[in-house]
Specification:
alpha+beta, six-stranded mixed β-sheet
């Protein structure tokens, strides 16, 4: 396809200027070797949707993939999205469709539902929403985009300027989910030279020269100036990103091991319980990565401030405290246990009234349903799920419920607050909310699940009976 200046409308032009020529077969061979060495990027036999703006990068991507498709048994489809931010932009879609048709590749066209926005982030989000929807609709395996090594250098520099951590400095991954970037090993000039050697024209988008955007100024002014002062700067930025990526991967593995080593508890839904001593032993850097992993698993991306708050709380926070670290997640400490869960009120407890000497019922305490049966007995049973309590007629109605602040129980050494009793026995706050209590009509606690039975003087009065309560969690 020869370059034809002025063919495109709507502000787009074809770049007709030759730069230098490469052997047309060189890049396809290199790309094919790259994909065979990294089969996780594009597995053999995949169906690929190629994002085709019509610019040099995406056009080179489509041509190169079409050249290696037979050897890898790939099925290609192109996709062009019109942001409708400049008059006549629909001509770009016509151009993209013609390019794909010449290669025998079907092309899908999409357009913004809200034309006119000028924010790059909004434009990118709209484009990817449509592209990812098309991937699902076409039952494709991958969405291929045309980012290359110069884009990676620009991304690393941009994030470095904004104070990114290792994850940010790692730049764009070669693959994230279904999105793949097969051209990351190659430079912009090589891709342009490949197209010129093939006699293929491309669209020049005027927005790529708009100095309002920071990335445009980095691309057209800052990076060229850095290259003039220190030749090879772009490649060194790419190498920095690769080093950061390797360090990030090591930290991720260390964080995964730390979380596995620290895991405790019974795996209750909606919460993660971890040993604080083990977490702190991992050090603040790995602990930060571990928190980010936990948050991502819950669909939350922690900010630097949220991560720092979580690390500081786990390292220094008091038992019984809690802190929100963003995205609806909170971390709390209960003695040597760290609990991470969704924010929200603790589940409310029900009450079960005991009005007669024999009966049964179900009560929800915390998030657990407790099945209770009771009957008179002559002696105390030996089983832990059965308890016998001395009850007089004046105690009725009894109530099985969760504990309340201010509850007290009479023991051999005098009455004690349940809060104090829980603290002495080192019962975590979350477990206290799940602890059943049996109280009389006046609110006096007769029994606390798993901890204590109240002292009674009813034996000298003769008007009491022993009620056995059998408790089973459903």
């Amino acid at each position: 396809m020869a370059s034809e200046p002025g063919r495109l409308g709507g502000g787009g032009t074809v770049d007709p200027t030759p730069r230098h020529t490469v052997v047309p077969s060189e890049l396809p061979a290199l790309l094919g070797a790259h994909l065979r060495a990294q089969p996780y990027l594009i597995p053999r036999g995949s169906k690929i949707v190629v994002a085709l703006s019509g610019g040099p990068d995406s056009t080179a991507l489509l041509y190169l993939l079409s050249e290696v498709a037979a050897g890898l048994d790939l099925r290609l489809e192109a996709a062009h999205f019109d942001h409708q931010v400049r008059p006549g932009s629909e001509a770009d879609g016509t151009w993209a469709n013609e390019v794909a048709s010449k290669l025998g590749i079907p092309c899908h066209l999409g357009a913004s539902a809200t034309p006119g926005t000028a924010k790059q982030a909004s434009l990118r989000d709209a484009r990817y929403r449509w592209l990812e929807g098309l991937v699902r609709e076409r039952n494709a395996d991958r969405l291929a985009v045309g980012h290359h090594a110069d884009d990676q250098a620009e991304t690393v520099l941009f994030r470095l300027m904004r104070g990114a951590d290792l994850r940010g400095l790692a730049g764009m991954p070669a693959r994230r989910g279904q999105i793949v970037r097969p051209l990351l090993p190659f430079r912009r000039r090589s891709l342009s030279a490949y197209l010129e050697g093939m006699g293929v024209a491309w669209i020049v988008d005027p927005s790529n020269a708009d100095r309002r955007w920071t990335r445009v100024r980095l691309r057209t002014e800052v990076l060229p100036e850095m290259e003039s002062l220190a030749p090879g700067t772009a490649q060194r930025l790419v190498s920095l990103g690769q080093a950061a990526s390797r360090a990030r991967d090591l930290n991720e593995r260390a964080a995964a091991w730390l979380l596995a080593d620290a895991a405790v508890g019974g795996g209750r839904p909606g919460r993660l319980e971890l040993c604080r001593t083990t977490l702190v032993r991992g050090g603040p850097e790995i602990l930060a990565v571990a928190l980010q992993r936990v948050a991502r698993a819950g669909g939350v991306w922690l900010t630097a401030g949220g991560t720092r708050a979580g690390v500081e709380f786990i390292s220094e926070g008091r038992s019984g405290g809690r802190v929100s670290f963003g995205g609806g997640l909170e971390v709390s400490r209960e003695y040597d246990r760290i609990i991470i869960r969704r924010e929200g009120p603790n589940p409310a407890s029900d009450e079960l009234a005991v009005r007669e000497r024999t009966g049964a019922g179900t009560v929800r305490i915390g998030e657990r349903a407790l099945r209770v049966r009771w009957r008179p007995v002559s002696g105390r049973g030996p089983l832990p799920e059965r308890i016998a309590v001395a009850v007089s007629p004046g105690h009725y109605p009894l109530t099985v419920r969760g504990w309340r602040d201010g509850d007290r129980i009479r023991l051999a050494g005098g009455t004690r607050k349940l809060k104090k009793l829980f603290g002495d026995r080192r019962i975590p706050l979350s477990e206290r909310a799940r602890c059943p209590v049996l109280a009389d009509r006046s609110g006096n606690v007769l029994w606390v699940g798993g901890l204590a039975t109240a002292e009674s003087d009813l034996g000298s009065r003769g008007d009491y009976s022993l009620l056995e309560f059998e408790l089973r969690y459903e």
